Amino acid sequence: MKYKALLAALLAVVLCLVSGCGKDKDGGGDSSNTGGETVSSEKTAFTLAYSSTDVLNPYTAATRVNQELSQLLFDPLVKLDSGFQPVYVLAESVSLNGTSCVIKLRSAKFSDGSAVTAEDVTYSIKKARESATRYKTQVDNIKSASASGASTVSLTFQKADPYAVNLLDFPIIKMNSDTRKDDDNRDLPPVGSGRYIYDSKTATLQANPSYMDGSLRIASITLMDAPDTEALQHAIEVGSLSMYFTDLSDNVLPKMVGKSVSVYMNNLVYLGVNFNNGLLAQPEIRQALSAALDRTTLTESAYYGHALPASTPFPSVWQEATAMDSVPLTPNMEQVVANLEKVGYNKKDNDGYWVNDKGNRVSLRLTCNMDNSARLNASNAIKEQLAEAGIEINVRTINQEAYTAEVTSGAFDLYLGEVKLPNNMDITQLVTYGGSVAYGLTPPGSAASSQPASSQTASSQPASSSAPSDSSAPQSGGDPSSGDSPAGEGDGQPAAPIPSTAETVADFYAGRAMLSEITSSFTSELPVIPLLHRCGQVTYSSRLAVGPVSTISDLFFGIEACSFTP
Is 12 left (phi over 0), alpha (psi -120 to 50) or beta? Predict the structure, then answer.
């Protein structure tokens, strides 16, 4: 009995030591003071994923998690808020005058105490240009960069851009600090001026004492090694992370418990149009397709609400693009019928599809990447919506490799595509023949070149389709004798030609047009048919009373004000 009593006593002592008797029951003994109230370290622990096999250099990091973490280590000149508006960070002011740009720097210090100078900015532009990251394209328009004194940077652009400031969210690193090594000859992060400093010995991020905007409520961030997708997925599922972002490109929600918030992105999902197809060369057909779509329902059914319906190519939360000409978000059957009638499709067959006098349907093939579940869902939803409007769509689902080959070769009628617009919302490459993401457009001045609906009438003879299509797909059924303009345009007389979208965009950057004129040309011509802008999602721990307001520039936007629940 004495042996049992002694054993029980020893066990009680061990349990007391392990559980931290006499200390906060949730904290394991280590507590911090927040607003005068003792809060356990468990409740105030903040953990993010990273890859120990990758670097924390924003211009050379290969993994997404390390690229994201670099936003905490390095400040940019500006960053974009959730409405794509620039917020000055290291830049005190940015002055644009045609192709010239002058940037005045704030009085800021790197984490080693040295001042952030203009030479550091020009060095960072050089590193961005040499990188394989998104920052490379953001500095493409910079023809030259020079330091005019310690705190002034002078840039010369290839072309004038009124929204060039939106592209200045690349990270600024201290000149030549990207060659640093630790005692074991491992790469160290460059020196930055961001909110946190990487501590390689403890694998943590520590609050930067030189941070220009003051102290941070979260003093330390623990980094959990997630070297591959499997390890990252496990960390998410077991709740080890305090915050996780996904762009939802695969339409799969993370299995993470916490508060989820949408992140607005400038990823445009659209219907690409082949203007070599005689049917689609007619603006009335493109207008009919667009008017038949229910973009609001599409965002809910195909993207489960993680998207915003698109009435223009620009995100609806971008203030500059609001209150401009736009396509309808919900179906307008009157527009569908009126536009189809203008090109000779004025009666329906027994299956409810519009046909012309020869009995040919408005029938098109839609090419879709079957490896993307969201787009597959969207393609089927589009087929159903257009069928209700009397337009036949045959969905062709193929794998990514075949999809890319078919789209880039122009062997399609319609394709469901997605493009990430640059932060300055330049759509040149999407709407201009020969653009890097422009497929299906024809050379300016060609017989099948894209023409705005207000400048091309139903009497125009479309070119024959050179793209493969289903045998049931008709060629143009327009009435050659008709001289009426498209539905809703004028009083039956051909309207004066207006510039194409590509021409208007070029005029905009030449200072001869306004942004509103771009949207007017776009909605009239429809070089592509906008559907929606995808959203990402950030999920953060329920232990946070206030979480970050993640943006495309900074997933940790506002982390300075983050606080924990009592």
Answer: alpha
Of 531, 522, 535, which is closest to residue 329 (Cα–Cα)?
531
Burial of 89 (0-12, 13-18, 19+ CB in 10 A): buried
- Strands 414-420 vs 363-369: parallel, antiparallel or unpaired: parallel
Over residues 488-546, the pLDDT tens digits come to 334 445 555 668 999 999 999 999 999 999 999 999 999 999 999 999 999 988 888 88
Instruction: Annotate 144-188 with DSSP letters as a single string.
Output: EEEE-SSSEEEEEESS--TTGGGG--SBP--TTGGG-B-TTS-B-
DSSP assignment letter at 440 = S
Strand duo 528-540 + 259-273: pairing: antiparallel
Which H/E stretch holds residue 134? helix 134-138
Cβ pair 306, 537 in contact under 8 A: yes
Cβ(524)–Cβ(298) below 8 Å:
no
CB 379: neighbour CB atoms within 10 A? 25
Identify the DSSP state of 411: -
| Residue from 449, 331, 310 nearest 391 by CA | 331
Whole-angstrom CA distances from 430 to 272, 313, 478 are 10, 10, 28
- pLDDT tens per residue, range 17-70: 333 333 333 333 333 333 333 334 455 689 999 999 999 999 999 999 999 999
Q: Which of 247, 371, 279, 324 is nearest to 530 (CA)?
A: 324
**Cα(438)–Cα(463) distance, rounded to whole angstroms?**
19
Instruction: Tell me which residue of 318, 62, 146, 78 sits closest to 70, measured CA to CA.
Output: 62
Length of the chain: 566
In this structure, are residues 540 and 557 in contact, taking their beta carbons and an 8 Å threshold?
A: no
The number of beta carbons lying within 10 Å of the beta carbon of residue 351 is: 10
Strand-pair category, 78-80 with 86-88: antiparallel
What Rg value do the Cα atoms of the chain yield, rounded? 28
Distance CA 129, CA 425 (A): 20
Residues 6 or more apart in contact with residue 217 via CB below 8 angstroms = 34, 560, 561, 562, 563
Task: List strand residue ranges (DSSP E) for 78-124, in order.
Answer: 78-80, 86-88, 91-97, 100-105
Looking at the DSSP bridge assignments, the partners of residue 221 are 205
Taking the whole predicted model, whether its pTM rises above 0.85 is answered as no
Q: How far apart are CA 153 and CA 534, in angstroms?
A: 35
Sign for the CA dihedral angle at 490, 491, 492, 496 comes to negative
